[in-house]
Write a structure and sequence with these properties.
Length: 450
């Protein structure tokens, strides 16, 4: 049972039902004992009255006390008088006290009393089923309202349990409404003592998480800034070193590629830091994806030209610029598209093709980058978005990289509440990266601003 409210309400109502059942059983047994004592006293009183009857009166022989009572008057072994419903044999042994007897198809409670004044025995009998009926009526009258009130009690228990759990539900809604980048302590105000402990534990955990994220963020930023200076110095020294060695030698090219890769890694770390949730929330504004794509393609065009690759930008016919505007942070989106294009160029062979396409489908703005490169196996299409994950050397050959580009793509997409998927490209081989943005958020944002 996953619901605390259902568990508590069911447990309490079950205990009430069990308590009422036990009370009913105890009440029934108590009522039977009380009824037995009451009826036994009535039988004794009746025996005193019967013992004073004149047995010589002929009318006594046809006397009827009702279907539930019978009597006999004996002297020695002679039956002097009896009610009309009494049998001819003695109702009881000739010894004083109470007992049971069966006659006339009923179970009877019997009483024998010896009248010493008149020296005769008086036997009284009373039907037992009437005693049970009386006891059951008493029990039903006392326990019946409790049983009928169980549904009402159940509703009251549900209401009280719900009210008791209301602060917990309010805390849940507060946590759900809390933005992903908001790591401030929860201010819950007055609450139950038990919930104060939960809030304190959550705030303690959030504080530790905030400190850990802050350490990671500061480490990435500090490391990247500190490494920029020696990398720049290395590039200057490498440039000077080219005058004394063969700049076309394999060793020189490997050294230059290693320094370029280090510089690229540092820039990616900085990009990952700059696209943090805090900065994104502060800089979010409408961004023209088509204009941004044109700028990025123009800036990276020399890299494609060096590899004799053809790059094109497509926009669905009839799709205006306004239809391709989303809410976002321009630098983060530029980083996303730059990484996708650089990734496409690296894994596309000399003379290959890369296509950037933008279109609007209902409430979605779709950005895709397709190439006719080496492609990505189905099993690797989700794994490639993990940090520092690269394809096997058999797939990518000698292509260099740091394994952060696609991780940044996924990170930026998540910041914009967009989805990233990988599919086969329109060409005979290659890969298509598809980003789907929610244009409805942009419309709502503009309505709020207006």
């Amino acid at each position: 049972m996953r619901s605390i409210r259902v568990f508590l309400a069911t447990s309490i109502v079950s205990l009430l039902i069990l308590f009422n059942f036990v009370a009913a059983v105890q009440g029934y047994q108590s009522s039977m004992r009380e009824a037995d004592a009451l009826f036994d006293n009535q039988m004794l009183d009746l025996a005193l009255l019967v013992s004073n009857l004149d047995v010589r009166d002929e009318r006594l022989r046809s006397l009827q006390l009702g279907g539930d009572l019978a009597f006999q008057i004996w002297q020695d072994d002679t039956l002097l008088a009896a009610s009309a419903n009494a049998p001819v044999q003695a109702l009881h042994e000739f010894s004083e006290g109470y007992d049971y007897a069966n006659f006339n198809s009923y179970r009877w409670r019997t009483l024998a009393r010896f009248d010493q004044v008149h020296e005769k025995w008086v036997f009284i009998a009373e039907r037992m089923d009437l005693r049970f009926v009386l006891a059951e009526n008493v029990v039903l009258q006392s326990v019946g309202p409790l049983l009928l009130g169980i549904p009402l009690v159940g509703l009251l228990v549900w209401a009280f349990v719900s009210r008791g759990l209301a602060p917990l539900q309010r805390l849940s809604l507060m946590l759900k409404a809390k933005p992903a980048n908001d790591l401030a302590p929860i201010e819950f105000g007055e609450s139950r003592v038990e919930l104060d402990q939960v809030v304190a534990s959550i705030n303690s955990f959030v504080a530790r998480l905030d400190a850990a994220m802050d350490r990671e963020k500061r480490f990435s930023a500090d490391a990247a800034h500190e490494l920029r200076t020696p990398i720049s110095a290395l590039k200057i020294q490498l440039h000077n070193f080219a005058a004394t060695v063969d700049a076309d030698s394999e060793s020189y090219r490997e050294l230059q590629q290693g320094i370029d890769r280090m510089q690229h890694l540092i820039e990616q770390l900085l990009a990952l830091y700059r696209s943090s949730p805090e900065q994104f929330a502060a800089k979010g504004k409408p961004v023209d994806l088509l204009g941004l794509a044109q700028e990025v393609v123009a800036r990276l065009y020399p890299e494609f030209e060096n590899k004799d690759q053809q790059i094109s930008l497509e926009s669905e016919a009839g799709t205006g610029r306004d239809a391709l505007v989303i809410d976002g942070e321009s630098f983060a989106l530029e980083t996303l598209l730059t990484n996708l294009l650089i990734n496409a160029s690296r894994y596309t062979p000399q003379g290959g093709q890369v296509v950037v396409a933008l279109l609007r489908q209902g409430d979605k703005v779709i950005l895709s980058v397709e190439d006719d490169g080496v492609g990505i196996a189905l099993d690797d299409r989700e794994r490639i978005f993990d940090r520092f994950t690269r394809l096997s050397s058999a797939q990518i050959g000698s292509v260099s990289g740091c394994g952060l580009g696609l991780a940044i793509v996924r990170h930026v997409a998540d910041l914009h509440h967009a989805t990233v998927s990988v599919a086969s490209s329109r060409f005979s081989r290659g890969t298509a990266f598809i980003i789907e943005f929610d244009a409805e958020q942009t419309i709502n944002h503009r309505e709020k601003e207006a």
